[in-house]
């Protein structure tokens, strides 16, 4: 070995030639970083620094270089450049290949941002095979320009290489040739090091990846990948999405234990299904996620002048199949997380603490995402706003949502006629109009098809400002607050009033239609306006919103469900699928049988923290306070959650599907 | 005395590093972050490179340590003690309008001097809110030289490089949570530059040319856009990249310096400025720490480029004049006669 090493002296270009190589690589890498950032900023969306002013977009992209995050992209591009050139060992051909990759990446990033205000994510790599379909989506002029550019670059590279390798080459040609590595061993060593460096984010786990990115001052924007890319650069956003800690393996996880659970809950579902009907056909289950809705009467210390702002919803709750308080994971935001729990039936509290946005961290990479929507034939979501947040479009695709109506939708556009507001013209679309569109969708559903429809409202979304509702008579009396808090709270209360009235009218309308409709209604989280509430002292209260599951006359007659509306006075959003299926008296898969058991035997998960629960009387319990039976059920639930989300998928399809 | 080209290059580098040190000491990093970062990547590696070059690998370890004590530790302690005493005098005579008082009390000053931390940091005894200021550089040069004296005895280059990489990593790691005495972390992360200096002594032929300068410029600018080399607390967000940037930037400065030796007039001027580097450092650090020249000039001239250049020139001239005055005094006391030679270290 010693002999071998002494013979194999690693040699390569001189120091100055290395520096020449570095100059070319660095210039290209810096340009690539600026161009990729330009693809983020030269957009119509108007978020952060996005603009259609070419000069401004270029300047902002150059300014990005002053961020530490830019170094990550520069270094990545430089290593890629080194890898390519050393691989082909031809400088100009290497540059041409690098430029082709850069151009293709730029177009892909630009077009995806243009379409969704989202950069390319790791989950998009599954679509790379559909090149034909993807190129059809690209702007024709841009595509032609890129093809011509790439052809010119390759022809130029070919000619330059030919010129370099003539018999009588000049000094410049010789100097270029001297930049190349002649010794195979050195080349292999460089290729290996650069390849492993580039591949490391794909091999490393989420914690290691995050540690790497944190070195470059990564600023994670958990709710919006578009904004993440604007702050950190699309390359960093891409790497940050490669791997993620979804859930840590619960003890006793094995093929054997999962097979036992499959058997146990198949048997349990069969027992429950003896009294259940297979009756979703011709029915609608509608979810309404009422943005930032909570009962102002529940806010500690808040007193206002005006009629009971929540009286109609309170009344509906009394007549509902189930109703009570929902334990949200968010305060002032985090809508998509609550939404995910209501669809998937998994609480956020049992995932790893690092897994904070399932739509971006879990859904794109999960083996299987069983949600309540899978039980229906027609699956639609309505959102009277843009659909770019939380990676919803991709996530919905994965969970089988067929149509996603948004104001910026191209294929499925939320109709203009329902984009009306109450109060000030600048307010978000009002609930009463969103409800009208929802009702239209329900009444026009096919009688032979089961329908799942979800509406995510916008009316009460922040920001709240003075004079949002000029006709409002609601006045905040207590507590005494400073600044514009009083005006924002008053605007919020007025908004809640409009929601309350609109919800009553919706229920009245649904009550009289012939199609059986089960409505799951909930406020997703508190608004961030009650600044006088000490969140540390009022942790539970400030995460409680109202929910109800209502059935219209046709649904009640069809299901014959015997329930007590206080049966789940405190519910986790993850309880909703099981509760909705109980309301419709539908047959259950083993998966929903387990969820049903959880809603009946476990207190509700307190999703704003970990290891805590709230019982039906509103008392907080810790895991250690649970009974032995409850602890066993919790463990089984976690095993199933782990297996389906990040485990080895030992459970067969029959566990989650009929 | 015949000086070879490499010695001449080092003299020019010494003057460069001194001028750049004045520059980064008086510039406002908040207002001119890129410019500040840019020069940190050049200044610190150059100073430590010169220190590495000045180690005579042929000397016995004892002799080398004695030289290091003479070059760095004695000036460090002398200047530090003088600053502490002067600090007390200024406090007693209430002259703080005219002179700075960097230490709240003699005791804290002495503590900072003995610990050798440049700025307030978490020490092994807990948080210490007083630092010795720019004087940390001398103690870091001392500890770095001590380490390099031993490392330079390693015959196989591979092992020397490996040890330096490991020690550098250790320095960056330790700096994330604690500062150990005598600015040891700063010395540890500066070892690659010092080794380059040691290696440069032995180098017969180095192919660096204009491309190296251009590469150094691009690398330095790319890094400077977002971060600099914060040697006082041994911090750069990316230690491998940071060390490589420092080395490439240094290579660029060396090429520039070596290209200037053809011009004898310039070489002579730079040789004068760069001679007696540790004295240069001590004098400048003392002036910079104790005399608020910014305040004097700021009162006479509006802030801006002109006043900045004037302050920089004043600092350079005063430091150089005082340095030669001190050299003359020291020579008179030690009984040495004749012209002042232009060696970087004497």
TrEMBL record, chain A:
One family from Pfam that matches here is: Sulfatase
For this protein, what is the EC number?
3.1.6.-
Membrane-crossing ranges are: 21-44, 64-84, 91-111, 142-164, 185-204
Entry's Gene Ontology cellular component terms: plasma membrane
* Keywords tagged on the record: Cell membrane, Hydrolase, Membrane, Transmembrane, Transmembrane helix
Question: GO molecular function terms here?
Answer: hydrolase activity
This protein's major location comes to membrane
Please state the pathway this protein functions in, per its UniProt record. Answer: Cell wall biogenesis; lipoteichoic acid biosynthesis
In the bilayer, the protein is annotated as:
Multi-pass membrane protein
Task: Please verify whether the record's keywords include Membrane.
Answer: yes
Q: Which InterPro entries match?
A: Alkaline_phosphatase_core_sf, OpgB/LTA_synthase_biosynth, Sulfatase_N
Top-level EC class, please? Answer: hydrolase
The segment(s) forming the Sulfatase N-terminal domain are: 283-584
Q: Can you say where in the cell this protein is located?
A: Cell membrane
Task: Output this protein's name.
Answer: Arylsulfatase
Gene source species: Weissella paramesenteroides ATCC 33313
Automatic annotation (TrEMBL), chain B:
What residue intervals traverse the membrane? 12-28, 34-55, 76-99, 119-150, 157-176, 182-200, 212-232, 238-261, 273-293, 305-326
The yes or no answer to whether the keyword Transport is present is: no
The record's keywords, sorted A to Z, are: Membrane, Transmembrane, Transmembrane helix
Q: Which domain of life is it from?
A: Bacteria
What is the name of this protein? Answer: ATP synthase F0, A subunit
Q: What is the lineage of its organism?
A: Bacteria, Bacillati, Bacillota, Bacilli, Lactobacillales
């Amino acid at each position: 070995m010693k002999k071998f090493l002494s013979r194999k002296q690693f040699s390569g270009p001189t120091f100055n030639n290395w520096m020449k190589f570095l100059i070319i690589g660095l210039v290209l890498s810096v340009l690539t970083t600026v161009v990729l950032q330009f693809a983020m900023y030269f957009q119509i969306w108007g978020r952060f620094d996005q603009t259609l002013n070419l000069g401004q977009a270029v300047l902002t992209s150059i300014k990005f270089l002053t961020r530490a995050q830019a170094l990550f992209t520069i270094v990545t591009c430089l290593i890629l450049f080194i890898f390519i050139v050393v691989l082909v060992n031809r400088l100009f051909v290497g540059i041409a290949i690098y430029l082709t990759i850069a151009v293709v990446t730029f177009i892909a990033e630009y077009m995806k941002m243009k379409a969704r205000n989202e950069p390319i994510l790791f989950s998009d790599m599954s679509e790379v095979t559909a090149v034909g379909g993807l190129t059809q989506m690209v702007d024709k002029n841009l595509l032609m320009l890129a093809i011509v550019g790439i052809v010119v670059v390759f022809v130029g590279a070919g000619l330059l290489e030919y010129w370099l390798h003539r018999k009588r080459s000049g000094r410049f040609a010789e100097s270029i040739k001297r930049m190349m590595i002649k010794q195979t061993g050195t080349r292999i060593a460089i290729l290996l090091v650069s390849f492993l460096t580039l591949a490391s984010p794909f091999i490393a786990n989420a914690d290691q990846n995050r540690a790497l990115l944190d070195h470059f001052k990564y600023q994670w924007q958990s709710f919006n990948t578009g904004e993440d890319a604007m702050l950190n650069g699309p390359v960093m956003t891409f790497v940050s999405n490669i791997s993620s800690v979804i859930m840590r393996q619960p003890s006793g996880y094995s093929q054997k234990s999962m097979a036992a659970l499959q058997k146990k809950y198949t048997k349990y579902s069969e027992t429950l299904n003896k009294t259940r009907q297979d009756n979703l056909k011709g029915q609608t289950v509608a979810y309404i996620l009422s943005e930032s809705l909570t009962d102002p009467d529940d806010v500690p210390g808040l007193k206002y002048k005006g009629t009971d702002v929540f009286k109609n919803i309170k009344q509906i709750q009394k007549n509902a199949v189930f109703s009570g308080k929902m334990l949200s994971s968010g305060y002032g935001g985090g809508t998509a997380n609550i939404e995910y729990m209501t669809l998937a039936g998994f609480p956020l509290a049992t995932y790893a603490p690092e897994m904070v946005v399932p739509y971006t961290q879990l859904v794109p990479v999960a083996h299987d995402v069983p949600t309540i929507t899978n039980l229906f034939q027609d699956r639609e979501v309505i959102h009277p706003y843009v659909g770019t947040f939380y990676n919803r479009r991709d996530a919905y695709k994965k969970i089988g949502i067929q149509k996603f109506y948004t104001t910026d939708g191209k294929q499925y556009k939320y109709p203009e006629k329902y984009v009306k507001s109450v109060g000030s013209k600048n307010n978000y679309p009002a609930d009463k109009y969103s409800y009208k569109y929802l009702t239209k969708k329900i009444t026009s559903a096919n009688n032979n098809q089961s329908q799942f429809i979800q509406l995510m409202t916008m009316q009460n979304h922040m920001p709240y400002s003075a004079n949002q509702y000029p006709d409002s008579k609601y006045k905040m009396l207590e507590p005494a607050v400073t600044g514009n808090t009083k005006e924002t709270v008053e605007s919020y209360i007025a908004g809640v009033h409009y929601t309350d009235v609109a919800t009553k009218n919706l229920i009245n309308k649904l009550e009289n239609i012939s199609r059986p409709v089960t409505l799951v209604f909930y406020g997703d989280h508190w608004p961030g306006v009650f600044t006088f509430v000490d969140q540390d002292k009022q942790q539970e209260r400030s995460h409680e919103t109202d929910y109800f599951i209502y059935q219209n006359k046709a649904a009640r007659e069809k299901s014959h469900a015997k329930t007590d509306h206080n049966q789940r006075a405190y519910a986790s959003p993850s309880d909703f699928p099981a509760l909705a299926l109980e309301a419709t008296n539908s047959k259950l898969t083993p998966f929903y049988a387990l969820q049903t058991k959880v809603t009946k035997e476990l207190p509700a998960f307190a999703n704003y923290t970990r290891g805590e629960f709230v019982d039906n009387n509103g008392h907080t319990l810790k895991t250690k306070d649970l009974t032995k039976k409850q602890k066993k059920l919790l463990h089984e639930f976690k095993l199933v959650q782990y297996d389906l989300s990040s485990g080895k998928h030992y459970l067969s399809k029959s566990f989650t599907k009929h | 005395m015949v000086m070879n080209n490499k010695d001449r290059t080092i003299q020019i580098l010494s003057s460069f590093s001194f001028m750049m040190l004045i520059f980064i000491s008086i510039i406002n990093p908040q207002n001119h972050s890129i410019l500040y970062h840019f020069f940190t990547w050049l200044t610190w590696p150059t100073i430590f490179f010169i220190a590495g070059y000045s180690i005579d690998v042929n000397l016995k370890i004892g002799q080398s340590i004695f030289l290091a004590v003479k070059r760095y530790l004695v000036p460090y302690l002398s200047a530090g003690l003088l600053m502490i005493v002067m600090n007390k005098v200024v406090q007693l005579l209430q002259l703080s309008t005219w002179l700075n008082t960097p230490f709240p009390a003699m005791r804290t000053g002495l503590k900072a001097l003995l610990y050798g931390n440049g700025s307030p940091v978490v020490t092994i005894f807990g948080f210490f809110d007083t630092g010795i200021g720019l004087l940390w550089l001398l103690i870091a040069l001392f500890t770095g030289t001590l380490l390099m004296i031993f490392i330079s005895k390693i015959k196989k280059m591979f092992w020397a490089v490996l040890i330096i990489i490991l020690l550098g990593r250790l320095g960056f790691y330790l700096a994330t949570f604690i500062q150990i005495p005598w600015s040891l972390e700063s010395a540890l992360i500066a070892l690659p530059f010092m080794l380059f200096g040691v290696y440069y002594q032995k180098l017969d032929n180095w192919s660096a040319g204009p491309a190296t300068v251009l590469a150094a410029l691009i690398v330095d600018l790319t890094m400077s856009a977002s971060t600099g080399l914060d040697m006082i607390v041994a911090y750069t967000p990316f230690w491998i990249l940071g060390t490589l940037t420092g080395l490439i930037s240094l290579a660029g400065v060396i090429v520039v310096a070596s290209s200037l030796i053809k011009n004898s007039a310039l070489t002579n001027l730079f040789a004068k400025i760069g001679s007696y580097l540790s004295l240069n450092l001590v004098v400048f650090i003392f002036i910079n720490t104790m005399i608020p020249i910014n305040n004097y000039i700021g009162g006479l001239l509006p802030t801006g480029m002109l006043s900045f250049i004037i302050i920089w020139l004043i600092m350079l001239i005063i430091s150089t004049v005082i340095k030669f005055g001190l050299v003359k005094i020291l020579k008179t006391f030690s009984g040495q006669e004749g012209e002042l030679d232009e060696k970087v270290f004497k």
